[in-house]
Write a structure and sequence with these properties.
946 residues; 41 strands; 22% strand; eight-stranded mixed beta sheet; alpha/beta; seven-stranded mixed beta sheet
C-alpha cells in the first residue's frame, strides 16, 4: 500500500480506506469518492429528505444536476477531497472539503484552510456517522497540509453544529448572514483525543453487546440428524434457556421440514421473515460467503463463525479469512471467529449459550476471553469445578475481527463483570491493548496469561503485526498498566477465584493459621518468596475443631497488624489411627461465619487431601436461588420430542458477596494472594501517577533542527546511526552530558589524548566483539602517567590484536560507582519504551531489566530503578555507599523527554552510565534516527485489517 510521501497527486489514496464502528455497534466503510460513484451518489441523494437537503445547500435542492454529480465525484485528492461512508456498497453519508484562500475562493497549497460540508442519509442519522467522517476528513486534510476547516451551518441544523462543537478541536464561532460560521483548528488536542477514545469505547462496547445480548439467534448449518456442530449449538441454546427467539437454518432442508428440536426451521435467513440479530455459522468454509450474504442482506447484526479452514491452514486460508471480514463489514456486521468455540452470556434476561460447551457456567462476576477453544473448554471446566460463576464468555478463535481489545471495551463498564480473565496467544495492537487494559484495571482486575511466549511468532490463523519488542518487555509494560500477568491457565483460575470472591488486601502482611505446623511453614516460606510479610504461623494442632478454626480466624481478622489470612487444613488422625477429614461442610461454615464478621480482609484456604472442604466452599460459591422464568410475552418455541430440558438457571452471585477460595497447594494460594497485593498497591498508586518534570537547559528546537538536517539527506528507511560527536551534541541539547572518548590509533595519539583530557585516564577498546566486556581485558583503568599509558597500550595490542582491529580510545577517569545502562527504543506496535538495568551480565545474561512506557513520570522512573533484582547494589548493599539515584532518575526522565519530543529518534543507548555517590557519568552513547514510524493510536478510529 502506498504512503502519502511516495504517491503522486491524483492517484487514488487507498490508505484512506477504513472500516469503522459506529455508535450503535454496526460498522461502515469509509473510502474516497471516485468517478465510478456517480450512480451511487444519485441514489444516495434521492433517499435524503428535503429538510436534510435544505440544511446542506441552504435552499430547496430536490435533485443533483449532471454538473453537481461531476463535481462531487471528481477530486484531485489534494485540494478537493470527498469521502463516503458505505454499508452494503451503498452510500449512507458523504463529506467533502475544498481548499480555499483567505477570501474564501478555491485555492491550492500553500493555502492551509478548507471549507467542509457533510450530508448524512436520514435513516442513518444519530449513528455517529458524521463524527467518524469528521475524524477521517480531518486526518486527510492534515496530510495534505490543511490546518483549519471552515463550515457554514444553518442555526436550525443543531445536529451538525453539535458534530463540530463536540469534536474537541479548538474552534471559533460567529454568526454571519443568517448562518453559523465555524472555524476548526485541526491540530489534535488532548480533548479531541479524549473525545475520540470515548466514542471508540462506546461504539466498540456496543458492537460486542449486540453479539452477547441478541434478541434472536439463527443457527446456520443445523443438521437434519442429531449431532454435528450446528445441531449441538442449537441444543445448547435451548438447554441454557435462551430467552430470545431461536431459528434453525439449513438450505438442504426438505420443504416439509418446518422445525428441528422444536425450533422453527428454514432454508435461508431470508425465509425467516423476522429480524435476526445474531447468526451462528456452522457450514463448510466454501459455503460461508453465501451464508454471510444471506445474513447481510437481511439485517443480521453480527456473526459467530465456528467454521474452520481459514488462516490456520496457510496462505489460501488467510486470504479466505480476509475476504470473510471484508464481506461481513461491508454489510455492517462484526464477526467472532472464524474457527471460534462460541459465546456465552449468563445474564438472567439473556441466558445465551451459543457455543459448543454442553453445560454453560453458572452466573457470576467473572468475564472470560480466550483465543483457543481447547483452553476455553479447560477454563470453563476448571472454573465450574471450583464453584466460580461467569458473567460472559467469548472464545474468538482466529480473532479476525472482534478481539480482546473489543471485549475489554465491553467489560470496562459492564455492571455484571467484576473480574476480567484473558487467555491470549497474540496481541494484535499492543499499544491499544495496554491503554485499554490500564483504563479497565483502574476499576476492575484484569488477569492475563499469554501462550506462545517463547515461540517468537503468532499461532497459525492469527494474522497480526510483527513487533520487535521481546515478550518480557511487553509483560513488563502490561504490569505497568496494572495487568496481573500470570504464566499458566491454572494461575489464571487461581487469581480469578480470589479476586472475584474476596476483597483486595490493604497491604502485604499475612496471618497464617491452621492445624498443621508443617503446612503453615510451607505457607510462610511461600509468602517470603513472593515478597509478602507473613506473621509466624499459628498452629492450632491436629486436634482443632471447626469452632477452634472459627475463633482463630476471627482473632486474626480483628488484628490490625495483618491484611490477609491464609487458613491451612489437613486431615487429622482419629483415636483408632484412621485418617479423618471431618465434616467439610461444618468447617466451611465455620470459616464463612468468621470471615463474614470482618469482610474487609481476604481469606484463603490451603488444604491437603480435604476434598470435602474444597467442595463445600465451592458449592457455597455456586448455589443461589433459581432465576425467574422469562416473561410470558417473550416469543419462545415449543419443545419437541428431542428438545433437552433447559438447565435450571442460577442467579448471579450478588456483587460484594465474598466467597472463600480453596487451593490444594500453599504456593498456588500465596502466588494468587501476592498478585492481589501488588494489584491493590497499583490501584492505590494510580490516584497519584506522578508528573513529567520540566528541566532547564533543554533545547527542543535545536534538537529538532539537527534531526531535520540529518534526515534531509537520503537516509535508509531503517535509519542512520549518528557519529559519536553528533550523538553527543544531540544528547547535550537535553542536558545529557557524554564524556568524550578520543581515538587512539597509535600510542603517541593515546598520549596526546591523555594530555588533553588530563590524567588519570582509561584506555579501552571499542571493537564490537570487545565493547562493554571488561572481563576480556579490553579496559585499563587509572593510568596516571604517560609510562603507564604506553605500557597498557603495548599490552592491549600484543594480546588482543592490532590497533585498527581494537579501535582503542582514551577517556578521562570518572568517580567510581555502579555501572548501569539506559536505553530507549521505539516499536510501531508498542510505542517508545524506556529501559534500565545494571551494565553487563545482570541485564545481558540474566535479563534483569526494567521497562516503562514513554513519557515516563517521576514516579515511574523511581519505581523502575527499584524494580530490578540487582537494585540493592544501588542502595548500599553489604555496607557499600548508596549511589546518587536522584541523578539517575533525572537522566531517565531526560531520555524519556528526548524520545517523546522527537519520534525520529528510534533508539538511544547510554552504556555504561557510572552512578557514583554524587552525580553520574555517561561514558558511551549511541543514537539512531529514522523517519518516524506511523502511530496507530492517535489517528482516526479504524478497525484493524491484517
Amino acid at each position: 500500500m502506498r504512503t502519502p510521501s511516495d504517491q503522486p497527486e491524483h492517484v487514488y489514496p487507498d490508505h484512506w480506506e477504513a472500516d469503522v464502528v459506529l455508535r450503535d455497534g454496526g460498522t461502515a466503510r469509509i473510502r474516497p469518492i471516485t468517478t465510478d460513484d456517480a450512480e451511487r451518489l444519485v441514489s444516495f441523494y434521492e433517499q435524503v429528505s428535503d429538510e436534510s437537503k435544505y440544511y446542506r445547500f441552504f435552499a430547496p435542492y430536490p435533485r443533483l444536476s449532471a454538473k453537481d454529480v461531476h463535481r462531487f465525484t471528481h477530486h484531485d485528492y489534494v485540494d478537493r477531497v470527498g469521502l463516503a461512508a458505505t454499508v452494503g456498497g451503498e452510500f449512507i453519508a458523504t463529506v467533502r472539503y475544498d481548499r480555499i484562500n483567505a477570501q474564501g475562493l478555491p485555492a491550492s497549497a500553500p493555502a492551509d484552510e478548507a471549507e467542509v460540508a457533510f450530508l448524512v442519509q436520514d435513516a442513518h442519522q444519530g449513528r455517529g456517522v458524521a463524527s467518524a467522517l469528521l475524524e477521517h476528513i480531518a486526518a486527510v486534510a492534515r496530510e495534505r497540509g490543511i490546518r483549519r476547516f471552515a463550515a457554514e451551518v444553518l442555526p436550525a441544523n443543531t445536529k451538525m453544529i453539535k458534530v463540530f462543537t463536540d469534536a474537541g478541536y479548538t474552534q471559533k464561532r460567529s454568526f454571519e448572514d443568517g448562518a453559523v460560521r465555524l472555524h476548526l483548528d485541526l491540530e489534535p488536542t488532548d480533548r479531541a483525543l479524549a473525545v475520540q477514545r470515548a466514542r471508540e469505547q462506546r461504539a466498540e462496547a456496543r458492537s460486542v453487546q449486540r453479539l452477547l445480548a441478541p434478541g434472536s439467534v439463527a443457527v446456520i448449518g443445523t443438521g437434519r440428524a442429531p449431532g454435528g456442530v450446528g445441531r449441538t449449538v442449537l441444543r445448547n441454546l435451548l438447554g441454557a434457556g435462551y430467552t430470545g427467539r431461536t431459528y434453525a437454518v439449513n438450505r438442504a432442508l426438505p420443504e416439509t421440514t418446518t422445525s428441528l428440536d422444536g425450533v422453527p426451521a428454514f432454508r435461508s435467513v431470508a425465509d425467516i421473515g423476522e429480524p435476526v440479530d445474531l447468526a451462528v455459522v456452522a457450514v463448510p468454509a466454501e459455503r460461508v460467503p453465501e451464508a454471510v450474504a444471506d445474513c447481510g442482506e437481511h439485517g443480521v447484526q453480527g456473526l459467530v463463525v465456528l467454521t474452520a479452514g481459514y488462516a490456520e491452514q496457510g496462505a489460501e486460508g488467510r486470504e479466505r479469512q480476509r475476504e470473510l471480514v471484508r464481506q461481513a463489514r461491508s454489510y455492517g456486521m462484526r464477526i467472532i471467529g472464524p474457527n471460534a468455540f462460541g459465546i456465552i452470556n449468563t445474564a438472567p434476561g439473556v441466558r445465551l449459550n451459543a457455543s459448543l460447551a454442553p453445560h454453560p457456567p453458572v452466573p457470576g462476576r467473572i468475564g472470560l476471553f480466550t483465543q483457543s477453544g481447547a483452553i476455553g473448554i479447560a477454563l470453563l471446566s476448571g472454573l465450574h469445578r471450583r464453584g466460580a460463576g461467569l458473567s460472559s464468555f467469548v472464545s474468538a478463535g482466529n480473532r479476525a475481527d472482534v478481539s480482546g481489545n473489543d471485549i475489554l471495551q465491553y467489560w470496562y463498564d459492564d455492571p455484571d463483570t467484576d473480574v476480567v480473565l484473558l487467555y491470549l496467544e497474540s496481541i494484535g495492537n499492543p499499544r491499544k491493548f495496554t491503554r485499554l487494559a490500564r483504563r479497565t484495571a483502574a476499576v476492575k482486575p484484569v488477569v492475563v496469561v499469554k501462550g506462545g511466549r517463547h515461540s517468537g511468532s503468532a499461532p497459525p490463523g492469527h494474522a497480526v503485526p510483527v513487533t520487535r519488542i521481546p515478550h518480557t518487555t511487553v509483560s513488563a509494560l502490561l504490569r505497568q498498566a496494572g495487568v496481573i500477568r500470570v504464566d499458566t491457565v491454572t494461575e489464571l483460575v487461581d487469581a480469578g477465584l480470589l479476586l472475584a470472591g474476596q476483597p483486595l488486601p490493604a497491604g502485604p502482611r499475612v496471618a497464617i493459621l491452621g492445624n498443621s505446623e508443617s503446612l503453615g511453614l510451607l505457607t510462610y516460606d511461600a509468602c517470603l518468596t513472593e515478597g509478602l510479610r507473613p506473621q509466624r504461623p499459628r498452629d492450632l494442632t491436629t486436634a482443632a475443631t471447626p469452632q477452634d478454626f472459627r475463633t482463630a480466624l476471627s482473632e486474626a481478622l480483628r488484628d490490625g497488624a495483618c491484611d490477609a489470612v491464609v487458613v491451612t487444613a489437613i486431615p487429622w488422625v482419629g483415636e483408632n489411627g484412621a485418617t479423618e477429614s471431618g465434616d467439610g461442610e461444618v468447617l466451611a461454615e465455620a470459616l464463612r461465619a468468621a470471615s463474614a464478621e470482618a469482610p474487609a480482609k481476604p481469606v484463603l484456604v490451603v488444604h491437603v487431601e480435604m476434598g470435602a472442604l474444597a467442595d463445600a466452599l465451592a458449592a457455597a460459591a455456586s448455589t443461589a436461588p433459581t432465576a425467574p422464568p422469562p416473561p410470558t410475552g417473550t416469543p419462545r418455541t415449543a419443545p419437541g420430542p428431542d428438545t433437552p430440558a433447559p438447565a435450571p438457571p442460577v442467579a448471579p452471585t450478588p456483587a460484594g458477596e465474598y466467597r472463600i477460595p480453596a487451593y490444594p497447594a500453599a504456593e498456588r494460594a500465596v502466588r494468587a494472594l501476592a498478585e492481589a497485593v501488588r494489584y491493590g498497591q497499583w490501584r492505590r498508586q494510580i490516584t497519584d501517577p506522578g508528573r513529567v518534570p520540566e528541566y532547564e537547559g533543554i533545547d527542543e528546537a535545536g534538537a529538532a533542527a539537527q534531526i531535520e538536517r540529518t534526515l534531509a539527506d537520503d537516509v535508509d528507511e531503517r535509519g542512520v546511526t549518528l557519529a559519536p560527536d553528533a550523538a553527543r551534541e544531540l544528547l547535550g541539547r537535553y542536558g545529557i552530558a557524554v564524556r568524550p572518548a578520543l581515538p587512539a590509533p597509535t600510542a603517541d595519539a593515546a598520549v596526546r589524548a591523555a594530555a588533553g583530557l588530563g590524567y588519570p585516564v582509561a584506555l579501552k577498546t571499542t571493537a564490537p566483539h570487545l565493547r562493554h566486556r571488561p572481563d576480556l581485558g579490553g579496559v585499563r583503568l587509572d593510568l596516571a602517567t604517560e609510562e603507564q599509558l604506553r605500557t597498557a597500550y603495548a599490552e592491549l595490542t600484543e594480546t588482543l590484536g592490532k590497533p585498527e582491529e581494537l579501535q582503542p580510545v582514551v577517556q578521562a577517569m570518572v568517580p567510581r560507582g555502579v555501572d548501569t545502562v539506559v536505553r530507549a527504543a521505539i516499536d510501531p506496535a508498542v510505542g517508545a519504551v524506556l529501559s534500565f538495568g545494571l551494565a553487563g551480565a545482570p541485564s545481558e545474561l540474566l535479563g534483569d531489566t526494567a521497562h516503562r512506557l514513554v513519557p515516563a513520570t517521576d514516579r515511574d522512573v523511581a519505581e523502575q530503578i527499584r524494580s530490578i533484582r540487582t537494585a540493592p547494589l544501588l542502595f548500599g548493599w553489604r555496607g557499600s555507599a548508596p549511589v546518587d539515584t536522584a541523578a539517575l532518575e533525572e537522566l531517565l526522565l531526560r531520555v524519556s523527554r528526548l524520545v517523546d519530543d522527537h519520534p525520529e529518534i528510534v533508539a538511544v543507548g547510554l552504556e555504561p552510565v557510572v552512578v557514583a555517590t554524587h552525580g553520574l557519568s555517561v561514558l558511551g552513547a549511541t543514537v539512531r534516527l529514522a523517519p518516524p514510524p506511523a502511530r496507530t493510536d492517535i489517528g482516526p478510529r479504524r478497525l484493524p485489517s491484517y
